[in-house]
Design a protein that fits this description.
Layout (H helix, E strand, L loop, with lengths): L1 E5 L17 E4 L2 H31 L4 H29 L2 H22 L3 H28 L6 H30 L3 H22 L39 H7 L3 H15 L4 H12 L7 H25 L1 H20 L5 H29 L5 H30 L1 H23 L12
Antiparallel strand pairs: 1-2
Helix pairs in contact: 1-3, 1-5, 1-6, 2-3, 2-4, 2-13, 3-4, 3-6, 4-13, 5-6, 5-10, 5-12, 8-13, 8-14, 10-11, 10-12, 11-12, 11-14, 13-14
Membrane topology: Multi-pass membrane protein
Main location: membrane
GO molecular function, one term: transmembrane transporter activity
Length: 447
Amino acid sequence: MYLSTVSRPRTEPPSVDTGRSGRRFALVSGNVVALGAVSLITDVSAEMVTAVLPLYLVLGLQLSPLAFGVVDGVYTGATALLRVVGGFVADRIRRRKLVAGFGYALSAVAKIGLLLAGRSVPLIGAVIAVDRLGKGVRSAPRDALITASTPPESLGRAFGVHRTMDSVGAFLGPLVAMAVLLAVGRSYDAVFVTSFCVAALAVVVLVLFVRERPSQPPAGEPAAGDAPSPTDQADGAAGEDADGGKVAVREVFGLLRDRPARRLVTAAVLLGLATVGDGFVYLLLQRRENVDLSWFPLFAVGTSLVYLLLATPIGLLADRIGRLPVVLGGYAALGVTYLLLAGPVAGWPLLVLALTLYGVFYAATDGVLIALAGPVLPARLRTTGIALVQSGQALAYLVSSVLFGLGWQAWGPENAAGVAAVAVAAVLLVTVLLLAPAYRPVTRKVS
């Protein structure tokens, strides 16, 4: 998959060389494509369930709004508790593919668990927790595999391609669920069985096509905050395990004593606190425009469509102009989205602008933030560090959604959206102060 032409040092491995001309092509490695395919298939499975779960619980099982809120809270927050565990285990045993595969398998089994749980709310909550446990365990090892399979100057491109494939699955999942329901009637069991089969296919693709990058003798560990050179991380492998020993628990806590890593995690948490849940954004749109509930799932489809169209171009832009400016621009788009929800714009312009900007926000922040984090974190603890960033954001999302809900009740939805926009602006300023002094973009010489 050829994306751009760049000059490469002669110290790069022969597998990246394109031939006699001396010009080399920046590749998205086969591992990144394979992991993207796994994420695409898994997201089809996951979004099939996500699209019908509210209808299944509230209309099918007659759950009260409070009970549904508890289940939805478990669905949102369970990943935060397990991401660091998954990242630490992957770093300790040096088997990122194995840990990621375990997480994908757990999520697949959980789809069948929804059938076995019947009408028991505690069992349904437990099954959903297992599904989210699988997501929490696999996320950091998967992103670490992408980082280890990519030269540092191409991380934005690699994560952009991966997130594009991932968002294709998020776009297709609700449509597949709707097709199943149209084919068999309102049989939620058919959706769960189909979702399990799709998730099992993703595990097979992971086992057959994703490769664990073997550790090699280091070429020298870069200082925290400095991007490693292509020689140090040719094809993403060299320098991964600086001493070959097992990672100790105390090293995880020591990671937060490293100033660049601490600033990065702090900024990620603050950005998460300024981000409310997707459901609130879509509920505000539905409420303001009085959209029929049957069209409600298509809000997520619209966001996913924008995301999948822009994830790769924005990843390429991040490699060219710098990842921090792109991340900041993404959160600026989020702030404008909240302003639209609080302002006078109405009708189709509001729907189109809000969903477009919301998709831009995800495309500019989801993978690009991890691409920004990769070179900052020491290679030995990179998976754990990525997990800390993801866990901090997941917990912050949970807190921010609760606070936004309280604001909705106290001030009304439009006023709460306005306050959220102000919070985004304040957090962006703090993020610049935290990250800009130590930020140094990876530069490339374009031939």
